[in-house]
Amino acid sequence: MRRVNYSADMKEAAVYAIPPEMAPTLFKDMSPEAIWIDGMIPAMAVDLLQSEMREAYQGLVSSNRYDPEVLYKISDFKRLVNLHYVTRLAKSTGISTPLDPVLSFPLGANAISILEAALAYQTLTTGKVHPLGRELTADMTPIITKIVDRMGNTLWEYEPHPETVLSSKVSGQVSEILRLVMENGTGRSAKDSIKLTMLLDEEEIEIPVPSFGKTGTSNRFTNSSFVGVVPGPSQGSSRLGLSHGYAVASYVGYDDNRPMKGDHVVVYGASGALPLWIDTVNALLNSGNYKKDLQVADLVFNLPALQGVFENGLKQVSVFPKSGLPLDAGEAGKSDKPPYVAVLGEFQGERLFLRRTFEPLTGGNHENF
């Protein structure tokens, strides 16, 4: 046995070279359990892995190549099935553009129109889609909702017949994700910018309105988009909710699709489309049609009227601002207004038990704690 020393960067290392003829003598009394690879895994684990692989292979060889039992064990096949499910879900939410179920789908391989994005956000946050016919397509959006004659008589009026696509639990969880984007994510610049201006004793006051949305930026800054939802009042009520809200989508980009990037300026979702979205939503909220049934007292003193958008089984849990971990009752009471998240679950005493849910499009519901 010969020792060879190496020195690099003021550190010493030693390598022991063992002649081949000495190896049988040194290792003849060592059991497989005594040999470890890099001091982390026993050598017998490798033998066990190889034997399991051989056994699994023999089981697959005896089956036909395209048997479900074989395909279900292939990870790419399972991903493809999931992608087909996503394309079907997308169609049910208002996206009529054909989508390719390719593995690069999550990276943005498919493109949809900004109108389809608005329809999809409306469905995701309310759980309902509003088709004009048997097939939901982008060109069937009710741009004209009412036709009257010169005497003011209604000749035709669009009467929506919404179809439920997602349960309130699923739409509530999606809404909560989009709310947190506006609180702490890429849409946070709109957090305190969406305001409703009301008159109180001949004095204007501004009431913040919660918003839900997400920015979008394509490669090389060629496109900037933002899609979001704001709650709206039900007819004859001061209570705001997403079921009567507005989905608004904004887009910024060049006609020739060149990058919106210069020597000193870069336009992306939060800097391009989001400011446009804020101005549009504020104009919408402060229109006479939106505010006609609203009462200042209800909006100012009854906060659930503004934030009562999670009445779908979700529980509001106060969390630490930095870590996001839940606060106990004592810690939550020390802060005037701690941040919160809405989660699906239930309280048993002071302890929160989270719930998972899976609701396939074909119906059914599977839940567990």
Structure characteristics:
single chain, three-stranded antiparallel β-sheet, 11 helices, 369 residues, 18 strands, elongated, alpha+beta, disordered N terminus
Structural class: alpha+beta
Unreliable parts: 1-11, 304-309
What is the strand arrangement across the widest sheet? 11-12-13
Order of helices and strands: EEHEEHHHHEEEEHEEEEEHHHHEHEEEE
Total domain units: 3
**Largest sheet geometry:** 3 strands, antiparallel
Write down the overall geometry: elongated
Report the span from N to C terminus.
60 Å
Strand content: 25-35%
What would you report as the Rg, rounded to the nearest angstrom?
A: 30 Å
The total strand number stands at 18
Q: Residue-averaged pLDDT, rounded?
A: 80
User: How much helix is in the residues?
Assistant: 25-40%
Please report the number of helical segments: 11
Oligomer: single chain
What does this molecule look like?
With 369 residues, the protein is an alpha+beta fold. The protein has 3 domains: 2-61, no CATH class; 167-311, no CATH class; 313-369, no CATH class. It is 30% helix and 26% strand. The strands form 8 sheets. A 3-stranded antiparallel sheet has the order 11-12-13. Strands 14-15-16 form a 3-stranded antiparallel sheet, covered by helices on one side. A two-stranded antiparallel sheet has the order 1-2. A hairpin with a 3-residue loop joins strand 3 (36-37) and strand 4. Helix 5 packs across helix 6. It is elongated and about 105 Å long. Residues 1-11 and 304-309 have low confidence and may be disordered.
